[in-house]
Amino acid sequence: MQAQATIKLLKSAPWTARCGMLVIAFYVLIAVFAPVLTPYGESQVVGFEFEPWGEQFLLGTDNLGRDMLTRLVYGARNTIGIAFVTTCLAFFIGIVTGFMAATLGGWMDQILARVVDVLMAIPQLIFALLILTIIGTSVPALVMVIAVLDSTRVFRLSRAVAMNIVVMDFVEVAKLRGEGLWWVMRHEVLPNALPPLVAEFGLRFCFVFLFISALSFLGLGIQPPTADWGSMVKDNATLIAYGDITPLLPAGSIALLTVGVNFVVDWFLHKTSGLRDEH
What we know:
mainly alpha
């Protein structure tokens, strides 16, 4: 029954949402099966630098002589995987602190809200560049810094949504029953706040994905020899002056995934809003 309901829901989706789902599924398959789909190793030097497209190297080679197709496929695994983990961590931090602020109120709400206001007052990119310059650019440091900075946006949304839920009668009944803070947050607040949070997850993933690519382009994101779309654009940017579109391939991959995720998020927001399609 659940499978039939899912198939019916997918059939009712507009063509934009279906295209978005296909794009996401395509990227996930590439990321999962990267070692099978690539002819060379991720960091293997297989030819001369900047070799043109041909039979041996379908998309040519990069500035060090590594196969661009291989790097592009592995870039999907690294960039998307790290962005997904970072977004999940940001949502865990933001939802927990946002629900605590809304449920407890009082001084806890004021302290958390003021800390978030201070963090949001500083430009995110500049703050991330400063922190990563100090603590280093390892993958765990990158994930933690971006997750903490991005959790401030999740905090604002989860707190605002939870504020409207904690005043409901069923939450008051749960408190009078003697249920603890975590039980109330998990069983009463979270289920009723899921639709906007799920939609926000898709948007946050796009922002984190683009943020990591921007940091890599600036040299403080995912470090070489790990393949990453942002650093691939930087490393091969000189080819644009010679009319070679190779540097645009990782940039186009970033743009295509962003558009696909936004198509799905728009459809999900429309479905959860209760609005009917106009015929």
